[in-house]
Every structure is written in structure tokens, then in C-alpha cells.
Fold:
Amino acid sequence: MIFKTKKIERTVTLTKQACEGILSYCKMNHPNEMVLILKGKSKKGAVFIDSLVIPPFSETGPIFAGFPSSFLPLDLSYVGMAHSHPVGSGDPSLEDLNNFFGLVSIIVKSPYNEDDVFAWDSSGNSIAISISE
Structure:
């Protein structure tokens, strides 16, 4: 018996407030990277992000940002993480992919405007992203 799996096309929608929070946090931490946990919902491949969490015991520097996931409280509304790239592109690095958390990774490149926000899946494939009111 052969089972065929249908690949779900993933999309990401950020509320305007969540997007502004991410961009503001990037600017506050520049020239260091920043890291945030994304909270929201996912249904049939559509990921909706409406709030952010600063992870406990997170560490950041000019070329890294991370956190020990073992200290996160259990919360089924975590859908991924966001971090910044103060220098370079909005593409995920190999280290970003190896430390993937949740369903989606948002990477924001400098100078941290709405056009500098990119979403990725765990394989490094780009995901369409939109901002809602």
C-alpha cells in the first residue's frame, strides 16, 4: 500500500502590532541580533502571528541570538521564532536551520523596515508573508 502525502502550502500573517514589535525590538538591540518567540495559531498551513514573547535566558551578540528552549513554559500557541540579521541578508544560515523552533522562522535584516521581514520553513524554503491590521 502506498500513501501519498499532500504538501501543505504554508503562509504567514503577522498582525500590524506584532510586526511593529519585531521591528522595534530589532532596532533596540542593533548592532546585536535579537530573538523573540512568535505566538499565534496555525490551521491548514496558514500561520497567524498575533503576539511575541522574549525568551527567558536568551543570549545575543553581533552574530548570534539564542535561548535554551528547556526553560520555556509549555504553551501550545508558540508557532515559531523571529531573529534579526544586523548584517547581511534575510536568508537563513545553516545554523538558523539547525536551531529551528516551531513552524516558521522570521528573519529581519537591517535596516528593519516592513520590506526587510522574511519567513522561512525548517527546510529553508521561503514562505509568503503578509501584514494585517
